[in-house]
Amino acid sequence: MKWIKRGASEKPNTLEEMVKDLKQSIDFVAYENKESDQPYRLIYFASLIDPEQLHRDILPVIKECESKSLEGLKGILPIENIEISSKLSLIQERLLEGHVAVQLSRGQKVLLVNISLRKSRDLSAPEIEFSVMGPKEGLVEDLHTNMNLLRRRIPHPRLRMKEITVGTVSKTKVVVAFIEGVASEQNINTVMQRLEDLDFDIISDSSFIGQMLEDNSFSVFPQMIDTERTDRITGHMNFGAFAILTEGSSNALIGPINFGQLLVSFEDYYLGWNIASFFRIVRMIAILASIIATPLYVAVLTYHYELFPSKLLATLISSRSDIPFSPVIEVFFLEVTIDLLREAGARMPTKVGQTLGIVGGIVIGTAAVEASLTSNILLILVALSALASFTTPVYRMTNTIRFLRYPLIVFAQFLGLIGVALFGLFILTHMIRLTSFGNPYLAPLYPPRIKDWSDSFFRLPYVMQKNRFQFFRGNQSTRFKDKKKKSKHSLDFDEQ
Amino acid sequence: MEQNRKDLLISPFLIMFIIHSNQVGVGILGFPRYIAAYTGNDAWIVVIITGIIFHVFIWMVYRILSDGSFDIIDLHNKWFGKWIGSVFNIALMMYLLLGTIVILRTFIEVIQAWMFPELATWIPVAMYLVLTYYVLAGGFRTVAGICFFGVLIPMWLVFTATAPIKFSTFSNLLPIMDHSLKEIALGTRQMTLSFVGIDILLLAYPFLKNPKSSRIWAHMGVLLTTLVYTMVMVISLAFYSEGQLQQSIWSTLIAWKVVELPFVERFEYIGITFWCFVVFPNICLTMWGASRVGKKVLHIKQKYFIFILITFVFIACVMVVNRDQVDYLNTLTSIIGTYVYYFYIPFIFLYSTIWRRVTRRI
Amino acid sequence: MKYVCSLLLFCFLLTGCVAEEIIDEVPILFIVGYDHGEDGKIKGTISLQTFDPNQEVETRGFEAEAYTSKGLRNQLSGLPKPISIGKMAVLLFSEDMAEEGIIDILDSFLRDPAAGRLIYVGVVEGSASELIKNEFQYLQGIGPFLQNLIKQSVEYGNMPENNLHLFDYKYYGDGMDPVTPILRMEETEVKIKGLALFDDDKMVGKLNLDEMFIFALINKSFSAGLYELELPDGEYANLQKIKSKVKYKVENGNTEPSLNISVKLNGNIVEYTGEKLTKEKKTEIAQTFEKKVEAQGLDMIAQFQKLGIDPFSIGDHARSQTRNFDFKKWDERYPNLPVTIDVKVNIGESGIID
Fold first, then answer.
1. 3-state secondary structure of C59
2. Chains that contact A by 3+ CB pairs under 8 Å?
3. Is A416 in the B-facing interface, judged by CB distances under 8 Å?
């Protein structure tokens, strides 16, 4: 256990040593009551327990207990899962979880009663994944509340929640939730195996786990979706994915995923299928345009001006005529400015944030054009592509898009359109090679699984989505039975 | 015979993309000139005839490979014994390597002639080869994926064919069958260079799930190639007059100059950019094939052997310096290709049929 | 392994390797004119545009002399390099240059991958250099203006299609000869004066605007603009949106060839200077038009036969309708080729009043 500097602490050998060691923290209480018939001592962390339960349930019972043994106490205490132990490591662990240790007459054994208090946020609407339609229920940091929310949506006995503790110091509880029989065993075994193999000290958030469970940690593409929305989690679980809930994190991880699911907003399922399909396609075009708009600007204006029709050429040249920089410097300047704005806006306190956002966005932009540092056409392009990068509903994807733009700009400057094509090939190859828990990332496009296309870049009506995705390699059971065909209404009077 | 791991196999549907992408390379950008030199306005008939011939070749190849999941390397060893089999295999590997060098160098020559005259050859060669390594390191599934996208992404270029039609005179194609059979035969021989690419099937066969059901898809691949080539040929014949076509080296690229879209004028730059996607699968497939031969025959790990091959291709590409040398390479490949397809494949077809009959009788 | 790959990829960034042509630093040429220079040199004139942020356009003309077209680049030392012809729109030749043959200069544009094929080739009555250098006060500059002028004439009016590609097509093709528009500089404007007829690449004849229209009608199935027709009784009628469907039929191409052109025209009457437009009047107008087209068509073909040129691509039509066509024999027989033209005019609409 080298997490702490050597010699910083000795391992306690007896209970007394442990109590003396822990007493160095102000929130540790070792309350001894010698006056009552039965001298007892309560050992607990005052910051972790619920004092009401202590006063209401435990103290009176201890006072009125007739038998002088721990077993007797265990029998009458109105709390479940009481343990009796003398093992120091267990006692320490339980104390740190919020148990109170009851010691009678300074015996070696103690009674461990669970009266821990969890404080967490109230349920609120998800902040990052807002949607106009649909439920606005988001997860909170408390694991039990989250499990409650999930179970309410799928009250099926086969919804399994398996717990693992990760993090040698933070001892974070992680729950893997899946529907047995729908999710593929292979996926579940993989994820459980990886969780067990995880070796880290403090897990602050589910994204830590996400990064450690990933197939390919060099990739900028997310291989699991972070989400706060319970409808999304349960929807994916129905498809055959599993969800990883982490204590202390309001994001759940969903895996395995494919690339198409990163572009899909769950709101699509609440709109009609034709409108949703249209918006999905618009979103995809927007994302593609967002990545390649500025690199194309650099490539075409630096090397291939002949591509523009003469009328457009006049506008472009006039807008660039006073600018002393080459297109690539212009683009870098604006891209970095927009990223600065974004980063600063994310961290500014709300009151200051709005004003500075307006100042940054409008004033700097207009001033830059007036000072002939950039052209207004480029400003429009950069602003539009920044907007378009936010159309993706998964936050991680926006960062990926932002990130991918820079090497593309570099390659565009280096080799013009060919550079863009070559880097595009690199990204394509990378995505083909990428897997999410062993499942190909670009399914259902490659390997082509035509049956899965009913819910990928467009969405067909619900009645057509009887079968689950082949991608998840789970049970191929159907989701619902076919309805009987409606009887034909006749429009004419004579027919029956 | 190795039991191939199920997760390394690819769906038989993908063989269509593999074959089609291996056949379409740089030839399509300039082939009308060479065929029309022999067959004039009947050159499109030559394309169709060559397509039919290659359907026959696919049939032959499937008959050769029909029992079990062998690839041609194992079959060579089986029929001819270890030593002569190895000679055949090494020859196949050299042929594939030549294919890589030719297509990579010709495409870079297109870039140098059309877009960036000062571009040093080694830069795009190195970039392509590094990318190829990245693809091959992912196994055959990645290669097949690149083929799939290499067909899908440039597919929309087909629609740009409508622009030259505006300036075309289709009466150029008349009168039909105005040429002698000899001229048509010469044209067919010239066309073979653009259709070569089905040899990859000889090596990819063990990687298919249900190889027998992939036969129809292989035929579809050749059909798709034939259709695309016929369309290009017909439009080239209508767009150019005979004398003009003989003058134009890259006739398809020149035809793209007349495409006018609302935002874009000189379309050939975009065409060449998308051609990066068309050429890349060819390079990956041939390098994969060559490295596979190396792994099985020379027993070097595929990872290391790819390095050796990449260095070899790099040096070869950089050594070819001007247009005439590129032309010479293309002619050389065309001649060798003719022998491979018109002699070697029928030869092993007959050999395999006889072998099968004989071993069955014993 | 991925480290090595990405490292290699990024190494290349250190080597800059391709020549940039940044859009606002490159002088963009839209038009160039060729005249005879001294000592057998070519005199090239270009018009350069500068673009203001306020979208005002300033143009300046430059001149230089050299033996080859690309050689002019070195002589234009008043211009910042690199001179790029990527956006070249119009090539003008003076009449004397045109009469001597222009394929050498066109070769420079055909060979260069940077030049497009939709460049318009034109002949100038007078000096091309004067035309280009003149300050016409056209808003877009002389190059884009002429490009637009010719383009609109082809699309909406009375000129057959022509560009560099078609010139090349007809030059290299057997049994066809190219045509280009003729431009003329008047005091404050540039006008299209007609069509120049070429024998391979040398100019040998002209057609005026009227003849050009009929030429366009007969040449190919065409959708033309306006035509003013003189009627035998002195009245005038104006036909618009004339659509022509043309069919060339060559009989016995190798033995005793004869040509029949069948022209079906469809037009609307938009103006009539007479009293009432009765049915008989309409038939009369149709018949007059038919006769006019036939007569002028035959005249033109006779003129072409005398000059030994074939702008209608009759030879090509013969080739497509005869097996094993013999071009040599055709060339001998062409001047005496019997030609008949059958014209059929159909009047469509004639306005909302009678």
1. strand
2. B, C
3. yes
Q: Which pLDDT value is given to residue A394?
A: 85
Q: Nearest chain C Cα to A323, which residue? A: C24
Per DSSP, what are the bridge partners of residue A62?
Answer: none
- Residue A65 sits in which domain range? 15-114
- Please tell me whether residues A319 and A415 are part of one structural domain: yes
* CB contact A317 to C (< 8 Å): yes
Mean pLDDT of chain A, nearest integer: 84
What are the structure tokens assigned to A410, written together?
């570099």
- Among B127, B142, B273, whose Cβ lies nearest the Cβ of A417? B273
Of the given ranges (A180-184, C89-93, C225-229), which has the lowest mean pLDDT? C225-229
- Could you say which of A309, A421, A447 has the minimum Cβ distance to residue B273? A421
Residue in B172, B114, B161, B156 with CA at minimum distance from that of residue B258: B161
Partner A contacted by B264 (CB < 8 A): yes
> Is A220 inside any structural domain?
yes
- CB of C249 within 8 Å of any CB in chain B? no
Alpha-carbon distance of B143 to C89, in angstroms, equals: 44
Contacts of C126 (CB under 8 A, 6+ apart): C94, C95, C184, C185
User: Which phi-psi region, left, alpha or beta, contains residue C313 (left: φ > 0; alpha: ψ -120 to 50)?
Assistant: left
A395 exposed, middle or buried (CB, 10 Å; 0-12, 13-18, 19+)? middle
Quick check: A467 contacting C, CB < 8 Å?
no
The pTM of the full predicted model, rounded to 2 decimals, is 0.89
Q: Is A305's Cβ below 8 Å from some Cβ in B?
A: no
Structure tokens at B309: 């091959």
Q: Is A268 exposed, middle or buried (0-12, 13-18, 19+ CB in 10 A)?
A: buried
* Domain count for chain A: 3
pLDDT tens, A395-415? 888 889 989 999 999 999 888
Fold of C220-354: GMP Synthetase; Chain A, domain 3 (3.30.300)
Q: Residue A306: its chain B contacts at CB < 8 A? A: 265-266, 269
Tokens at residue B155, please? 């597919």
Across the range B108-116, mean pLDDT stands at 90
Topology of domain B6-351 in CATH is: Amino acid/polyamine transporter I (1.20.1740)
Nearest to B257 among C116, C166, C324 (CB): C116
Helices (H) and strands (E) in chain B, counts: 16, 0
Cβ atoms within 10 Å of A198's Cβ, excluding its own: 17
3-state DSSP call for residue C202? strand
Tens-digit pLDDT profile for residues A133-159? 888 888 988 898 999 999 999 898 989
Is residue A390's pLDDT more than 90? no
Whole-angstrom distance, CA of residue B134 vs CA of residue B124: 15
The answer to whether the Cβ–Cβ distance between A314 and C28 falls below 8 Å is no
What mean pLDDT comes out for the span B156-182?
85
